[in-house]
Specification:
2 copies of one chain form a homodimer. Chain A has 2 domains: about 25-120, Sandwich (Immunoglobulin-like), CATH 2.60.40; about 135-395, Alpha/Beta hydrolase fold, catalytic domain (Rossmann fold, 3-Layer(aba) Sandwich). Chain A contains 10 helices and 19 strands. Chain A has helices at about 5-10, 185, 190-200, 235-260, 280-290, 305-310, 320-325, 330-335, 350-365, 380-390; strands at about 25, 35-40, 45-50, 55-60, 65, 70, 75-80, 85-95, 95-100, 105-110, 110-120, 135-145, 150-155, 170-175, 210, 270-275, 295-300, 335-345, 370-375. An 8-stranded mixed beta sheet of chain A has the order 12-13-15-14-16-17-18-19. In chain A, strands 4, 5, 8, 9, 10 and 11 form a 6-stranded antiparallel beta sheet that branches. In chain A, strands 1-2-3-7-6 form a 5-stranded antiparallel beta sheet, with no helix packed on it. Chain A is globular, with a radius of gyration of 23 Å. At the A-B interface, helix 1, strand 9, strand 12, helix 4 and helix 5 of A face helix 1, strand 9, strand 12, helix 4 and helix 5 of B.
Chain lengths: ~400, ~400
């Protein structure tokens, strides 16, 4: 059969076989896009069409902006200095407005589908797909009586989940950061491949990982009109607390029962962990310390107890977390793992806040793990490393069982 | 516990509680984005910041462009005429360049993460999440010896797949169109909800639906440099045929065996269907007619046999499809369903091509179904309707079984 018809629509798949200077299209690109591209030193070349623009910049979220230069053909180009390995969000600033790069796939961050570029880390394979058994990532939809709406979550099931129907598994609830959504841990971080690799080399126990959407509006409570109400105003604070409480209720009253009914979980606190990054870390501390009957492993990745990390409050071990730390020995027996981490290059307030929480916990003799990711900022490479350190510490005494 | 930290990062979730003129944020928007928004008549209002631009348009792919007007605050705004119900791709044309709308989620089409807007269809609930049992959508990764790479596919498993471990299911392979990817049938079309609804009201048999990525580069065959080689040149045609053949080999030699090994399928031709839209319909005709030993249900949605639909070739029932139609009675016995569909408002070549294929098949006494979607163009509303008509015709004599 002739392939004329298919040929017409396949044409867009071909592009630009040249490869000067060792630059290769980024793994985060859409099919066929030659730009952005990356070289072995971690430098990135960008190219975008904007013939009518007068100023175009690459707007990295964790690095300085990069000015682009206009070329005679209406395209703008720029080459970065070597970037820190890992996944970097960016957008294009075009004459005072902000858009995504059509050459990049979109990654939800900053409350929008932003662009991203992956800079390979030499020697790091722990977040790449390798020739080992792979788990699935399931999209599930559940109706929440808390929000009065259908909600979407992603659920990683470990390799062989289907072929070992008599086994039950522990569960890690793993939350994204502010402005992100339930897809971030998979699309940006490759959490599924991280778990696949950790399980394959027996560093981690097989587990189910649930990634929920971290924003929740309570049913029948329309958004307040905050126009003219500055951040920190009583109205804004009240609205924020309502959002946070709605998430907590959705998670503990709807999502966890749904997951325990649908999947072969071990549905008790000894086999349930929660961790999250940034906002998700703060949510983790709120949800777990409010519900220590439900959780026994706690992880805060570049985010933990909000007032203690960002609010500059002093840890009072007698009263903090509803008094949970008042007896450190009892706490360590009850909570199998308290884990906090931060990147060494994070913004000063975040880094100092996590360090202060760490030293305060140490001073109060509260057993915990503190991890610093060398050379990385408030970005996904930090959180990939966090997960790589955190996951092997989970469920070692309570693995999957019949 | 105080919620200061969470409050900081939750702030972006609030925006714009006003609702003048009955316009509501589109369901396709990102969380908190007030624009674009839609009213009951199907009109859409757009708003985007571009203070330095001199000309901004909403670039619909299936409707005329819409000029936007610059406002004193640096934002551009426009209100459309009533749009056809359904999902519409669009981008923003800004001074000769093309970008996505930051207010919209991204939907992969046109070989990029484009914007999309959902116009509700009054009375149509068949593609919405309803209070019925829901299937899952699984992301799976398989290594293809054909492409030498890891490939990603989405797999819909019907409600209760997990709770009825003794049942096996028939499989529909469902392909996206040119410039799209394996996510389109879920994100843009809500194929999972369409199947959930059809299965709930017993119109469709429970089935597994596999959505594969329709582009494949053969391992060790780098893209040819087609610079200066016009479309239709021997070099370009050869390249296109190689892409199409690589997809066919990946599907028949790797994907189908992988799916049959991993899922509880009924692994025979009587329980295997393939359909696709546009390019995916052409691929369906190529793959199924080359492998009638593997498939017995065939669907072409706004795309079928390329040369017959787009190439203006005449159907010779004696020789077409390797002679499969030469004996119409034998063909009907062997192929349980041959289904083609097109929207009445599609571009003339596509509409005329499908009508001509339909009448040619009728003239040759080849049993088939021809469906026209009233009032819709080459767009997802056509393909949602196609799936709604097509899926209930599958596997009625060969449903899930132990």
């Amino acid at each position: 059969m002739k392939r004329l018809g298919i040929a017409i629509v396949l044409l867009s798949g071909f592009c630009c076989a040249q490869n000067p200077g060792g630059f290769e299209p980024a793994s985060t690109n859409v099919w066929g896009a030659a730009y952005p591209r990356v070289d072995a030193a971690g430098r990135a070349e960008f190219r975008v069409k904007a013939p009518g623009a007068t100023k175009v910049q690459v707007n990295f979220w964790s690095s300085p902006k990069l000015d682009m230069e206009k070329q005679p053909d209406g395209f703008w180009t720029a080459t970065s200095a070597p970037l820190v390995p890992g996944f970097h969000y960016y957008t294009l600033s075009i004459d005072g407005a902000e858009f995504s790069d059509p050459g990049s796939h979109s990654y939800f961050g900053g409350s929008k589908d932003a662009s991203g570029i992956e800079i390979p880390e030499p020697g790091s394979t722990y977040y790449l797909a390798q020739d080992i058994p792979h788990g699935d990532v399931r999209e599930v939809w559940y109706f929440s009586k808390v929000t009065g709406s259908w909600r979407h979550a992603l659920v990683y099931t470990p390799p062989n989940y289907d072929t070992q129907p008599s086994l039950r598994y522990p569960v890690l609830y793993l939350q994204h950061g502010g402005g992100e959504d339930e897809t971030g841990w998979i699309r940006q971080a490759h959490a599924n491949f991280i778990l696949d690799n950790l399980i394959a080399d027996k560093s981690s126990k097989p587990m189910i990982v649930v990634m929920a959407y971290g924003y929740a509006r309570r049913a029948g409570h329309p958004d307040p009109d905050l126009a003219g109400k500055p951040f920190g105003s009583p109205e804004a604070m009240k609205a924020m607390q309502e959002l946070a409480a709605a998430f907590e209720d959705d998670m503990t009253q709807v999502l966890i029962p749904y997951i325990d009914a649908k999947f072969r979980t071990i549905a008790d606190r000894d086999h349930r962990a929660m961790a999250g990054l940034s906002m998700g870390g703060m949510q983790t501390f709120q949800v777990t310390f409010d519900h220590l009957d439900l959780f026994s492993y706690i992880g805060g990745f570049s985010g933990a107890a909000g007032p203690l990390v960002l609010g500059n409050e002093k840890l009072d071990a007698k009263t903090a977390f509803n008094g949970a730390l008042a007896d450190p020995a009892a706490f360590s027996k009850r909570v199998h793992l308290l884990w906090i981490g931060v990147g060494t290059e994070e913004p000063a307030m975040m880094h100092a806040g996590l360090v202060r929480l760490h030293t305060s916990l140490a001073d109060a003799n509260v057993k915990h793990v503190f991890y610093e990711s060398p050379g990385t900022s408030h970005e996904w490479q930090t959180w990939r490393r966090d997960l790589k350190d955190f996951a092997p510490r989970l469920f070692q005494d309570g693995a999957s069982k019949p």
